[in-house]
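ARCHIVE CARD
SHELF: 3
SLOT: left
DATA:
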Amino acid sequence: MKNLKNLKHEKEFDTKTLISDISDALKETDSTASDTKEAVTLKELAQSRAENSEGRETVVYEPRPLTPDDDMYEEILEQFATAPTKPKYWFEEFGDYWSCSCGHINKGSSCKNCGLERDILRSLFILHKPAGEPGKLNKKLKSAKDKVDQEEKQYADKALKRQQREADSNGELRVVPIEDDDCALDSSQITATSETDDASLPKVSADSKSDAISDAPSQHDKQLPTVVSAPAVSHQKPHRRTKMIIAAIILIILIAAASAAIYVYFAEPAMKYQDAKKLQAAGKYEEAIEKYKSLGDYEDCDELIWECYVSIADKLYEDGKYSEAIDTYEFAMELKESDTLNDKIRDCYIGIGDNYCSDKKYKDALSAYSTAKEIKDSDKLQEKINTAKFGFVKAKISDENEEAVRFMNELMDIKYPGIQKIYDDYYAWHIKILANTSEQDYSTDLSTVSRKDTVYFHVMLTGGEPSEELQLYYEISWPNGQSQIYDLESTWKDGSKITAGFQYPIPLFGKEGELTFKLYDKSTQELLGSDSVTFSK
């Protein structure tokens, strides 16, 4: 960019101070078709050049500075990373006027201070200019415009004076001394020319040179330079013109290359970025992710990719596709951890558990709820867990499933509604009573025996809570209506067996009829079970 700036300045100098002057002078000379021309002084031509180049003072105003506090400060500096001139101020436009990033106010296509192009700066800043934040430039815009207009008027006045001076010279060639090596004119190569060809031109003798020099002070009061033959100018002019054409072509190529580079590194990524954001806003998250990935670390693409994955998972959750949503949330967690994503994953597991409960797959529901509980527990989640346990107990308790028993006891501890009845039924005492004539027979059950036989009632106890023991008593009723009560002094528990024998006293053998056995819980006097047998002859 710095080379472009220097080249621009050289072009401006050559075009305005040398080529234009010489070309115009030569045209004037050709039109007059004089045989010889008076030479002009280098001093006068130097004065003309000085008048043309003066007044290029840079005026720095006070637009809004670019500071680290600006939201886009880092992005702007990154875009200028390869530029030779770093930005100090925001680029702003005010109709025909505009403020360069170097702080200079301009009217035209390029900055007169740093050489940056207006269109290039617009493309760099257009995506980053904060809305509604004008700089100090707006307050001084009127005076800034006046100064720029004054500069333009000075340049126009100088050009007009130069044209008038050239018209007053009556076809004389005025040469401006040039300090640059590439553009310097050797005094031995400057000649006065006419429309005659080289063969018809008169030779200029030493005496004529001397006369020309001696006559000059009376006309211009200045010291004249040495004059040489005409052919040198005729060869130099095309050579310089070719140089200028080549320089212009190179400048155009460089500007095109710079514009292409700006497009590739700034404009194209910015457009892709905006396209990706539109796709994301439209719910086309997969397409947006692909575009964001193609931009690499441009802007906040990584963050937006993460947001797209979260949005995809949210949609899966809304559609009840909880397992797929979990996979997508977990992938997003690998990109960036978030407590919010943990909560979303937990909600997915709860949704899975609810579906299993609806299908009465209580064990699977409990597994899903347990995973959600590991992420974060809550009263609402615990209520879902208790509901699943209750469903499992009702379905499996009759099979004496150990896990069902465990869940039942856990629900009893919190007095879960409806569990008490299941608990009582499960831990109730179960009594089995058999009547026969054998003291060791726990399988035969007789309904009739001889009055002469001894009757044995065999009692087998099952049930009760773990380690629960009972104190019992029994009542025996004879056929004649008499009854007797007997205490069982020992304590009885699950699996206990009780045998009680009864016989009529000899030789009477009592009446025929029914002998009844009843067993009671001593602590509650609750009848636990009974059996009877009939005495016959």
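SLOT: right
DATA:
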Amino acid sequence: MKSLLYLALTALGTAAAIIPAACTEAAASEEMRYSYPNIFDISYTPDTLHRCTGWFTDAGAWFGFTAPEKEAWTNGFCGPFSLDMNRRQWLAKTAVAVIPQNGKTAAQTDSVCYYPGELRIISGFQDGEVTQRLNFINANSALLTIDNTAGKELSYTGIDWAPEISLSLQGNTVVASHPTGETVALTFSPDVEISVADHNYHAEAPKHDKDYVVISMFDSPEALSSGLATVEGIISDPSAALADNRKRWEGYLTKTLRDDMPDDYDRIAVKAITTLVSNHRSARGGLLHDGIIPSHAVGYFVGLWAWDSWRFCAGAATFDPELAKNNVRAMFDYQQPDGMIIDCIYTDPAENNARNSKPPLVCWCVDKIWEATGDKAFLAEMYPQLLSYYKWWFEKRDHDHNGICEYGATDGTLEAAAWESGMDNAIRFDDTKMLQNGSEDAWSMDQESVDLNAYIANECKYLKKFAEILGEKFDAPDHTSELAAYFYDPERKFFFDRTLDGKFVGDPGCEAYTMLWTGLATPQQVEEMMPVLRDEKKFSTYIPFPTIAADNPKYNPRGYWRGPIWLDQTYFAINGLRNYGYNELADEYTRQVFDRLDGLKEGAPIHENYGTHTGERLKAPHFSWSASHLIMLYNEYGK
């Protein structure tokens, strides 16, 4: 790995013009994360007019914080904010605001910095500085560290608690209870004097060079009661808790970053890691294992989706394989008796969607976990369930029993079948109809999809690999050898879906990339496809490989799956080119992604999709599967 000193110096050299004092000081540290200041801009003070689009959160927590805006300063981190899908609310504008007891001067030196796994505020005074650092210790608690060189005694108070909150004092802990059952606990050192009155608290600390406050959030009074013992352990030995946080983040970065990459590409990889970690949620309610949600910034994305999860786990496997394992387990907790993996699951199982599945990429992600860990026990645990899911496709999604499968649904609706494809409004489904497959819960589209069958063949390859490792027998269909000829149109020299009566469906689109990514296309087919793939009016666009050819009359620059760039599909195309020896071209396209996506090298969040001709950010911010595929593009660049 690059030396820590080199990382620190280069980060300072490239970003010094925009990094506040709080960042430049930390960048001289030996911790690698401090070489990546201002990883995201999450400045937002509650009650300002614009909309918050991201929080600082970590360690599987269901709550987060923002940095205060300079125009609406609070001298403390804003929040906590509940990130639960059903209870998204600010519990306070600022739960812990720092107040110098003898007045403040030089307010213009206030500054904020967001490092991977740490949010920091520094405030300047005539005689020194007060620095606040916020680090998550576990899923329930964040540790606020206050370094005080200003020669002042400090006091602490809350700002604008939610009206429904009731406050009480339990020993050295302020308890802020909400009628939903969510509870904030602020635990101070034993020598801090605390009082509660008038819907707030006031805490006065003796003059220390360093103070600590544990900010915790629990989803019920029972969880508060059992969790306070852990909180007391943190406040009694904060240095140990911070050491664990430091070790965890140092591990994430050292396992991912390469020593031969440009600094700005390293920064992209760190942003991607931070995105995935920020979207980690601990087991809660109907989510029986930890997992990664698509985006913490969008309320309807606070659940676990099947093909999203497989992508997230493939990206996270290298730096947090245990999280990846648990995310796989979380989806298989709801495997149906017939083998089906349902579309999505939530903390409230009544919200789960079992109308459809999602494209099968799970064996691919399990193989990523295997390659990262060599955990044979995990393979043995998952193999029977993986095999059952693989067989389900042939049993419930092969209308004419020819071994070539279709997307479908359990309820017979085209809406759910399009969801099953993951490409909800793709143009190839514009004229699709539904057919029943012999049982009430088995319906198929009237077309066989090239991407689905490429995914299934890829799963078959990995299942055979797992069976050999485990000494198991693979006893399921394998139609891999038929696919290259079946889905390739020699006249248009591209891969397409086919109707059940054999006609090719639609126009050139991203579903064809999967034949290159899985290595199923023949070298001759790929060579014949290259003029279309390299056409700047079709697929070799400003950001390469849109969801349909950019000159298609149905192309819509903001059309979800009818035009914009989705980075998973761009990754499939670029990685597919590598499979056939086009490495220099793959690197060129990777550079276009890294260099042209709006805000990717700056403080903007990673988004769900992007403008094909502009690189503009579209749809949900802080999006996990874009982050995951950026990590994979980073890992493979130049190789």
